[in-house]
Amino acid sequence: MIKVTGIKLENPTILAAGIMGTTGASLARVAKGGAGAVITKSIGPEPKEGHKNPSMINLGYGFLNAMGLPNPSYPDFKNELAIAKKESGTPVIASIFGGTEEEFVEVAQGLLKSKPDAFELNVSCPHALGYGASVGSNPDAVESITAAVKDAVDIPVWVKLTPNVTDIVSIGDAAQRGGADAVVAINTVKGMAIDIESGYPILGNRFGGLSGKAVKPVAVKCVYDLYTALEIPVIGVGGVYTWQDAIEMMMAGATAVQIGSAVHEGLEVFSSIATGIEIFIAEKGYKSITDVIGLAHERI
Ligand code: RRO
């Protein structure tokens, strides 16, 4: 058991936003697969269809996606969130986004009645014009959005950060000043792939966000730097496929780890990572999982 911003998780694995998170039933399936908590697809103020296909490519070393925030909007998602809460038996975190501070607050308040355990503010989608990274690379916007949502709700607020900035710590700092209970690092890394036969960019949106194995070292470094700089917990996400990846992320400073791309290999990933962590802790003689959090910072 581990506590993250006051929320009890049976194990430190969390379904990352965006994967299997649009229905209550699929969130519950992931929870039954062994996740310690689950996060919804990012939900916004208006229904959105997302970008045209192809919107996701498997590059082998990771996925490039430009889904384009497809979601049914909060009025149409309330019921799914309530089902997820009822059926999953784990904490359920609602990922939300908006184009403005007011929209973030509107979506948060709209979903509160369905009793999410926390909100994750998505200020970091790499490829949604007018949303996302343009907000997430502006410390003042991140601070004021975080403060406005914190003011409007009485549950923990996590802020998911983009790596597509010069200094992620300055954005994490802004989230902390705004009252965030935790930061989550990282969202996807901006990228592009081109079909050399035709010369066309492959994604319908021309560019997208890279996730999976390729981004793990980027995520580990971001988590490491945020852990050094902030007082609030850091939740790690990016390229976690195995228990070894999870331990590495925790040694960088992550209190818990989110799993996204690896879910495509099967839902057993949650229980196999959770079990692997437990065995490692026991074999190494650590008292608890918290002993490994930030351990790399002590190795100077
Ligand atoms: O829907 C997406 O295109 C998307 C989102 Br909201 C996000 O936060 N990160 C990402 O890689 N894709």
TrEMBL record:
Key word Flavoprotein present: yes
SUPFAM superfamilies: FMN-linked oxidoreductases (SSF51395)
Any GO CC annotation of this UniProt entry: cytoplasm
Co-factor remark: Binds 1 FMN per subunit.
Enzyme class: oxidoreductase
A GO molecular-function descriptor: uracil binding
Gene3D superfamilies membership: Aldolase class I (3.20.20.70)
Swiss-Prot/TrEMBL cofactor(s): FMN
CDD domains to which the protein is assigned, alphabetical: DHOD_1B_like
Protein name: Dihydroorotate dehydrogenase
Organism: Methanolobus vulcani
Top-level taxonomy: Archaea, Methanobacteriati, Methanobacteriota, Stenosarchaea group, Methanomicrobia
